[in-house]
Amino acid sequence: MVAPRSRPITIAPSLLAADFGRLREEVAAIESAGADWLHFDIMDGHFVPNISFGPAILAALRKHTKLAFDVHLMIAPVDYYLDAFIDAGANHISLHPEAGPHLHRSLQHIRKAGLKAGIVLNPATSPAWIDWALDLTDIVLVMSVNPGFGGQSFLPSQLPKIARLRQSIDAADHPIALAVDGGITAATAPAAIAAGADTLIAGTAILHSPDYARAIAAIRGDS
Ligand code: DX5
Ligand code: ZN
Question: Given phi > 0 = left and psi -120 to 50 = alpha, else beta, which region is 196?
Answer without folding.
Answer: left
